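Objective 1b: paired records.
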Amino acid sequence: MTTLQTRPAVPATIRPRIVARTGLYALLAANAAVVAWFFVQAGFASNALIVLGRLCGLYGALLMAFQLLLVARLPWLDRRIGMDRLTSWHRWTGFGVLWTLLTHAVFITFGYAQASSMGPVNQLVNLAETTEGVLRAVVALSLIVVIGAVSARWARRRLAYETWHFIHLYTYVAVVLAFTHQVAAGTTFTSSSTAKTYWYTVWGVALGAVLLGRLVLPLWRNLRHQLRVEAVVPESDDVVSVYVTGRDLDRLPARAGQFFLWRFLTRDRWWQANPFSLSAAPDGRTLRLTVKAVGAGSAGLRHLAPGTRVFAEGPYGAFTTLHRTRPDAVLIAGGVGVTPIRALLEDLAGHAVVIYRVAADRDAVLHDELRDLALAKGAELHLVTGPVVPDRLAPGELARMVPDIADRDVFLCGPPGMMTAVLRSLGDLDVPGRQVHFERFSLAG
């Protein structure tokens, strides 16, 4: 039997995700303390409502800058935390921005109304007409309210991603308007040059991170690597593999388990960016993605011509061996979720058990490759077929196939329903959460 030479398994002693998460929390806490200090140094206003309103406005601005950092797609953070988790934090931070800025607007309006004996509505109109930057703040808050409304779960389920994304882009308009309001009317800007420098730095870093991660880095990588379609290979009636080649791919920092946002630059596809995982470990010469036709866009990949230019953003994702904690692993795949699992098997050291869940044998994409790779690496492969009910990945079945599953890392990828069921089974089997690795495709605007 032929065996592949693999690196010795070296589980992480310090979890990269914890390091990155702790760093983000510490960064936010330190800046919150600095904001409070500058606020106190600026002095207090005539009544409590105005004081609280100004403080809420400052923390709303800080959260807005932090929200930009979370969605900047910076490689160091993305590889350690994952785009799905960063996007989730971005979403909840966004609701924090919405409520702190609404509170800011209400407290400021009622505070000044109390001091002037005007009604709240008249006071707001008066502020907008007489105070520089307030009208821009009203427009910014209105945009944030609309964006918050369409980001609620009930609205997201009813909106096409493209529609939601287009509306979400107005966040950047709101950011610029809010910043100019802060420059014009913020007490910390007018009372302290040090505080002014601090806020310019905060906004410069946040906007610079977005510019770097979302524009500069993707453009630079694509200009450097000059990606093109090398071949399109049918794997079944509704699944194809696309091989992409380019220059200096050995210098592209892609790892097995990661994904790219792929744009195939044809006349009818250049504007579509789709997240597809690598289905083979990067070898420095080609990148491979394997896609199941679930719509017109993915079905059209079968007709790509060799030589088609490709614009790829990434690599993204924390679903890699960087997060290993144990010498041995279990890889659980469902349907076309086998693509990153197949790539991970190629990259993993130590003993591995692969469990591939499909409805029928004919749905087992890349099964022959998995079988050959498992044989070469001395891994176990279980093909589990049958209907969803009864659950064939229930705790008892998993324990039967992998008796020592609680002592292994578990990498999981598949349809949402299957992943939820498997995560529940892993909990019933007392598999520690730090040993369970999964990632859901989740994109923010």
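Objective 1b, second protein:
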Amino acid sequence: MSKEKLLYPFYILTHPMDGFYEVRHREKGSVPLSLLILLLFSISFSINKRYAGFVVNDINPLSVNSFQDFKGIFALFFLFCVANWSITCLVEGEGRLKDIVTVVGYATLPLVLAYIPATLFSQIIAENEEAFYYLVLGIAIAWFLLLIFIGIMTVHNFTFGKMIGTLICTFIAMLIIIFIILLIMTLIQQVYTFFESIYTELLFRV
């Protein structure tokens, strides 16, 4: 991977519209790099849960499961990407699935850059200074959401109004996908239980 592609997510931080346009039309993005950024976010998020100072953190460090955090973040990431892609295919969005994955992955960079410094800062703040900690994370989250909004709108070539409608439909699609997955898992479990009961009964009869 070239140095230009490695540094490109930092360019997008301050030039999101131009940057995401280049991702869609000039292949400036990288799906592996997007997934790497997401992995770094999952690590920094887990570190924050485990090691943030007691002033801002009431989670028992022993209860933190980094692997569960990793699975949850990646599951939500792919759920959003697939749901958005399925909706935008119906409304003539120009972005491909890999463009959506790249946009969402690159958009998490502000969170990566904020969580570790915020965790370190939380170790030295007093009880009445936690507002600075939440300010850092709040700015990072707002930046992340803004980048996703601009990125999705740019790669699909949507207007502001169409983008709002598409996001609403995306969240509905996410709920539908979750429902279908749960339904399939329930059916599989019922089928497994049925065959297991038949097998058990045959054993007793023999």
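Helices lie at 3-14, 16-25, 31-51, 66-90, 97-107, 109-122, 130-156, 160-205. The mean pLDDT is 89.
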